[in-house]
């Protein structure tokens, strides 16, 4: 549903592989209902290992927070956001926001 962060789940589902280790952060914590549910879902569906340690993860799905531990080039950070287009409330037309980004026109 719109605004429930399903985009983050879709991105995670599209990039996750057998060798990945998944970490899920929700509201800055690993033990929230959403974080545990998402982590368990991917573990059950894909069979990948999961972790609560940033340094052990290859994929990190997060909502609102960036891990405090510096990431490496081998890690992928996936943001779960309700509205991925920051200009959506300023310009509702997708064609126009794409043009604005292409021209770097934000004034």
Please tell me about this protein's structure.
The termini are far apart. This protein is α/β, with parallel strands linked by helices and 107 residues long. The protein has one domain. Helix 2 links the parallel strand 1 and strand 2. Strands 2-1-3-4 form a four-stranded parallel sheet. The longest helix has 14 residues, at 33-46. The mean pLDDT is 89. It is 32% helix and 16% strand. It contains three helices and four strands; from the N terminus they run αβαβββα.
Question: What is this entry, summarized?
Answer:
With 107 residues, this protein is α/β, with parallel strands linked by helices. It has helices at 6-15, 33-46, 94-103; strands spanning 21-26, 49-50, 59-63, 76-79. 32% of the residues lie in helices and 16% in strands.
Features:
alpha/beta; 107 residues; four-stranded parallel β-sheet; 32% helix; single chain; elongated; 3 helices
Q: Radius of gyration in whole Å, from Cα? A: 16 Å
**Mean of pLDDT:** 89
Quaternary class: single chain
- Helical/strand content category: alpha/beta
Q: Roughly what fraction of the amino acids lie in strands?
A: 15-25%
Order of helices and strands: HEHEEEH
Number of helices: 3
| Number of spatially distinct domains | 1
Share in helix:
25-40%
**What gap, in angstroms, lies between the N and C termini?**
32 Å
Lateral strand order in the biggest sheet? 2-1-3-4
Q: Give the strand tally.
A: 4
- Shape descriptor reads elongated
* Biggest sheet character: 4 strands, parallel
Q: Segments where pLDDT lies below 50 for 5+ residues?
A: none
């Amino acid at each position: 549903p719109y605004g429930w962060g399903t985009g983050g789940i879709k991105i995670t589902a599209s990039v996750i592989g057998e060798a990945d280790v998944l970490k899920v952060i929700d509201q800055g914590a690993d033990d929230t209902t959403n974080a545990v549910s998402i982590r368990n879902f991917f573990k059950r569906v894909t069979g990948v290992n999961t972790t609560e340690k940033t340094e052990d993860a290859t994929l990190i799905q997060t909502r609102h927070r960036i891990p405090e531990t510096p990431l490496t080039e081998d890690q992928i950070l996936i943001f779960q956001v309700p509205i991925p287009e920051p200009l959506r409330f300023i310009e509702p037309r997708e064609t126009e926001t794409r043009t604005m980004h292409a021209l770097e026109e934000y004034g």
